[in-house]
Amino acid sequence: MVGAQLKGHRNSWDVEDSLIELGQLARTAGLEVAGQTWQRVDRFQPATLVGAGKVEELIDLRHDLGWDVLVFDEELSPRQLRNLEDAFGDDVKVLDRTSLILDIFAQHARTREGQLQVELAQYEYRLPRLTRAWTHLARQAGGGAARGGAGGVGLRGPGETQLEVDRREIGRRITQIRDELEHVRRHRALHRHQRKRMAVPVVAIVGYTNAGKSTLLNAISGADVLTEDKLFATLDPTTRRVSLPSGREVLFSDTVGFIQKLPAELIAAFRATLEEINEADLILHVIDITHANACQQSEVVRETLADLGVVERPMAVALNKIDQLSAPVASPDCWDEFPDGVPISAATGAGLDTLLERIEEILAADLVYLTVQIPYDRGDLAALFHEHGTIVSTSHNGTGTVIEGYLPRRWFGQFRAHLV
Fold first, then answer.
1. What tens digit of pLDDT does each residue of 353-409 get?
2. How far is CA 300 from CA 74, 253, 258, in A?
3. pTM beyond 0.85
4. N or C: which end of the chain has fewer CB within 10 A?
């Protein structure tokens, strides 16, 4: 594994911490880590990312350690990938963090939608990188990729033979996948609309990968979502109905875990899935409070939510895995950043009742009770109230439709001019 960090660059993740995470990704993908090295540089080299001296050092390390896969912690440009492949020869597989994450996603996608999303991300990543490396490595891997063995790391997903087709065929396949995913997006939007008409609030569970989101969903709903101590153990979204302490029913939706340096291709490909977060009434941020980089991980989640445009959405914070804290002093410094965070253990059930009470409080506080008279020519507003609000009563008069009910605060401005 090879890390690189710009000198003086203010990044909350130190290169050594990032390499620890890269090691977890590598092992999740089925690789055995033989060693690691890193370099702090004034600037990344356009030709090989790291300096020529580091490349020579890696060649020497190969003789000592016998490695045959080289994984860079930064995304490699097509030029950098080509030059590194030339430097190390045909019997070395050169990967970067992005291709490793894409490979893990290819392993864990179970539904047709998830498989399409991963395939699209892989094609868009590989299209500018179609060099002789992909074809000779595909042949070298043989059946290993199909069986999911380590020999196929970086090659799973579309499959070996499709990596050898020309750019036009790959472009055609990308268009086809996008069309299929657009159909999925419309289908998912229809389901969301039906849920809204039933006035069932949706809570989107978000968090850094391996924070315990699936374990939490299982604990509060009795679901049977796969849980493993691996990064991205679950990929496909799962939604379950849960009763809050008052008896009010809420839908909890588990989402794909976030990670630092999340490939742009994945965010784009998973647009349909991530729309679940955009449409949620409340976001539940799960933090592994025992992790050495818990503060940095929570910041990555906040930045990703900002990219999705949902930072202003009502949020509850669950500080998970308290059963693994040896003492209160073992909690990270950023604990103070979450004064309203609820300490829980999804594994033992500790604090879950308090968490559900907190979620109910936030949902209730976010609702505004109002009565509006909507003109008959503003059917869009009436539909908006029906979709996002809870209707208490509806009546009609000579000038419009009178609706009385509860509405999430973020929609209040749309109805201010029609208040009764």
1. 999 999 999 998 888 899 999 999 999 999 888 877 888 999 999 899 999 998 888
2. 16, 20, 7
3. no
4. C
